[in-house]
Amino acid sequence: MTSGFQTGDAATLRIVVLAGGVGGSRFSIGVRESLRRRPGAGASGFTIVVNTGDDLWLSGVRLQPDVDSIVYALAGVNDTARGWGREGDSERVNAELQAWGSGWPWFTLGDLDLGTHLARTGWLRDGLSPTQVIERMSRRWPLGATLLPMTDAEVDTQVALGDGTSMHFQEWWTRHRATLEPVRFDNPGIDRAAPAAGVLEAIAEADVVLIAPSNPVVSIGPILAVPGIREALRATDASVVGVSPIIGGRVVRGMADVCLRAIGVDTSAAAVAAHYGARSDAGLLDVWLIAEEDAASADEIERRGIRTVVTPLWMKDAAASAAIVDAALAAVEG
């Protein structure tokens, strides 16, 4: 861990966030809001490395659920009630696709959302990389951040089940609501993948790396599995600060507890901290933020060599999310 950065012009503060899912979207809004509140507010040094393990091909188009969730959230056009897709979207095209027997009847694609997928697919077929596609997507709205996919390779998440079969993560998550007990999560080809252009450089040049309170297994896990990213986090001079996705021994959203159980990790703030590990002991974390409800586990986490900060972690709005980021930055500021 470094000695910390100096408080000052926000435009000079270089922050990298590893994120995915709704938790990553809300946390990213908090980072942007926290930066805006700082002297000389600017966000030119704010980079989000996004999980692309959730990606899939469906009805001939390429979907990137975590990328889109973060783009829509930062643009202020996301559907906050459902937690995914565009606000005020319609589903006429989705109904027509299902009438033709195309796609998955249990996987809804909104009309505006389909516009995103069609644009992305067209650009990919024109020869653009996923990194270039996301850069082009980011021109539409003032996002206040640079988004990078974890890799340009297709490494979609497959869920292996106890009966020897497997299915795409989205089928397991959306259709079966994680009721089928998994034995492991695979990203075929990820061992041959490379970090997307700019990812390793952003980590190396960062002042702070923040691990969002995203699902540790299927959102953060694939990012860390891309060859070179974990090593870059171990080598960076930046402080690495993680935010617990567990509050009071329970997951905040989704079925992360099922995912954690599959890899032998308890659903607790202390267990997830141990899963990431301390940088002083070949792990990743310098600092770990836990909720007030989990304050009793602070000493246990500290004994693992991870500085522990107890703070409110409910991301009920942008201000609350920004307060979490403020606490994370305060923990490592010099």
Detailed description of the structure:
- By secondary structure, this protein is an alpha/beta fold.
- It has helices spanning 21-36, 65-75, 92-99, 111-125, 130-137, 169-175, 199-205, 220-225, 229-235, 256-262, 269-276, 298-302, 318-330; strands spanning 15-19, 46-50, 56-58, 61-63, 146-149, 158-161, 166-168, 182-186, 208-211, 239-243, 246-247, 250-251, 287-290, 307-310.
- The protein is built from 13 helices and 14 strands.
- The strands form 4 sheets. A 7-stranded parallel sheet has the order 5-2-1-9-10-13-14, sandwiched between helices. It has a 3-stranded antiparallel sheet with strand order 7-6-8. It has a two-stranded antiparallel sheet with strand order 3-4.
- α1 (21-36) links the parallel β1 and β2.
- The longest helix is centred in the N-terminal third of the chain and has 16 residues, at 21-36.
- The protein is globular, with a radius of gyration of 19 Å.
- It starts with 14 loop residues before the first strand and ends with a helix.
- The mean pLDDT is 94.
